[in-house]
Amino acid sequence: MTEELDQLQKIFDRIIAFFVDYSFQIIGGIIILIAGFIVASILAKGVSKLCQKRNVDVTLERFFAGCVKLIIIILFVIIALNKIGIEITPFVALLGASALGLSLAVQGPISNYGSGIVLIVTRPFKVDDTLTVQDFTGIVRGIYLGYSQLETEDGEIITIPNRKVLGEIFTNSFTFRVVEGVVGIEYNADPEKAISAIKAALQGVEGIATEHSPQVGIEEFADSSVNIGYRYWVATEEYHPIKYKANRAVFKALEQAKLPIPFPQRDVHLFKEDSSN
Predict the structure, then answer these.
(1) CA dist., res. 25 & res. 212, Å (int)
(2) Which tens digit of pLDDT belongs to each residue from 182-216?
(3) For residue 74, is it within any domain?
(4) Cα gap 132→134, rounded to integer Å
(5) Which residues form the domain of 209?
């Protein structure tokens, strides 16, 4: 029992001696850490205010402020450890190796974040624009650091990693989408009459954008018909309903103008072989 008490006393004496010898270094390190957190918060707030004055996107503003705060805190932690007397060289080497391994492990997410920063800064599209990328079309509902979100006409949310957006060809039609259609008329019909009827029909459809006039003309000369093509613009949210209404109006207009829509026909000729040979 006496030996155990002696060992505890020695341990206690060593602790007291350590604090006596290094008390000023420990206090200095704590003060440095507190100062680091204060400086980091002040600089982070300053970066946020600067971004707000420059009308920087909120997501990017928070990212910049967070990065500045983290870097300042790390610097002050290193200074505090050095002040206490702890050798920081092994920690720096370990941090470098860990950073290399981490960068290889999270290469995909980092690429998404980098692409997100480029998208937010360059603004090739913004929220509420209509975007088509990789055969997906929808209204942009959010542009974040790691991904962008599109909402389809059916209310579905499509989440696309930003590196897939930035690394692909995409189409931004802003708040509208183009609707294209083709209808055939007989070769003996008057194409000008058909074009006029289709234009009048499209102009009477409620929901077709008035900012862009519908385009109607001869699309091609097919085997059994002269194909009349037409194009018009609609709001993305009403793409399919307006398209169906327009197709119905075009069909009725051609019917009233007595311009029937032909169907494919083939002439088959039968030859009877001469049995005398």
Answers:
(1) 74
(2) 999 999 999 999 999 999 999 999 999 988 889 99
(3) yes
(4) 7
(5) 176-256
Confirm whether 112 is domain-assigned.
Answer: no
What tokens appear for 44 in the block? 């982070």
How crowded is the C-beta side of 64, counted as CA atoms within 13 Å? 18
Direct distance between the N- and C-terminal alpha carbons of the chain, in angstroms, rounded to an integer: 132
Alpha-carbon distance of 205 to 183, in angstroms, equals: 17
Specify the long-range contacts of residues 209-217, CB closer than 8 Å, at least 24 apart. 209/176, 209/233, 209/234, 209/235, 211/176, 212/176
Q: Say how far apart CA 128 and CA 254 lie, in whole Å.
A: 36
Asked whether 139 and 156 are in contact (CB, 8 A), the reply is: no
| Boundary of a domain, candidates 105, 132, 164 | 105
- Residue 227 resides in a domain: yes
Tokens 């980092």 label which residue? 110
Taking a C-beta distance cutoff of 8 angstroms, is the pair 251, 211 a contact? Answer: no
Give the 3-state secondary structure of residue 219. strand
Q: Please answer whether residues 226 and 274 qualify as being in contact, where contact means their C-beta atoms are separated by less than 8 angstroms.
A: no
> What tens digit of pLDDT does each residue of 73-132 get?
888 888 887 777 676 666 666 666 665 555 544 566 778 888 888 888 888 998 889 999
Alpha carbon distance 75, 84 (integer Å) = 15
